[in-house]
Amino acid sequence: MVITRLAAGVDATGHLDDLALARTLEAIAGFREVWASYGVEGRVRIAATSAVRDAADRARFFDGVRAETGVEAEVITGEEEAQLAFLGAATAVEVARPTAVIDIGGGSTELIVGGSDGEVEGWVSLQLGCVRVTERHLASDPPADGELRSARSMIEEQMDRAEKVLAEQGVAMADAASLIGVAGTATTLGAIHLGLPTYDEDRIHRTRLPAAALADMAERLAGMTSAQRATLGPVQPGREDVIHGGALVLHAALARMGLDAVTISEADNLDGLVASLA
Description:
Blueprint: H1 10-13, H2 18-37, E1 47-48, H3 50-54, H4 59-69, E2 74-75, H5 78-90, E3 99-104, E4 109-114, E5 120-126, H6 130-137, H7 145-168, E6 178-182, H8 183-194, H9 201-204, E7 208-210, H10 211-222, H11 226-230, H12 243-257, E8 261-264, H13 269-276
Parallel strand pairs: 1-2, 3-6, 6-8
Antiparallel strand pairs: 3-4, 4-5, 7-8
Helix pairs in contact: 2-4, 5-13, 6-7, 6-12, 7-12, 8-12, 10-12
């Protein structure tokens, strides 16, 4: 895993950050070397999400990817991102149905509610990623009490929006009998809960993170500096200054659903993208 923080600054400026874009293109070039070493040709999808969706200068990303790989990158919609996350996670973890999946990214959060048959019943894409929350409201290190109140207020407003959008599709967050958390925020929180010395995908996958433990962790992370969070074994470089914002989002969603735990899945929208190539 390579954390490039492509969403850095997009919420404030509407444009891609030069250094973040360079890091991202460097990582993609490295992935090209990997797939070329396996002889892969012609069946490659490079999909961008919230950061590129929101950037006015997204053409810079497309041009850079094309130059580095020869592949035409795509921006997937919030709906497709939600569908892919559900496809990747709901088939990889055994939990009670109806199942909800939450995908907390850097710029957005996708929340998907499935039915008893395992199919998607409703979805919403929120402007609520861990980078966006942190950049808007958690500037201090560690954040001040007023900043935390402001962040929680923003998150609750977005949860209200989620309830409204899902209701228009005939479903509710409370319909879910279980919640699966995917992507880096959820998996890192699962790793911290386990007390892992390093990030270990096999041990993280299918971890059950109780609501009470998540609440304590969100409070503890918010009280730490970025340097202190970086010393936590499984927190990968580039996540230490935004993980507390993501923890607040996950805790709020779990509380809205009234569930006692979230199950962590290493399978996510990337697995859904792979399945789409089959």
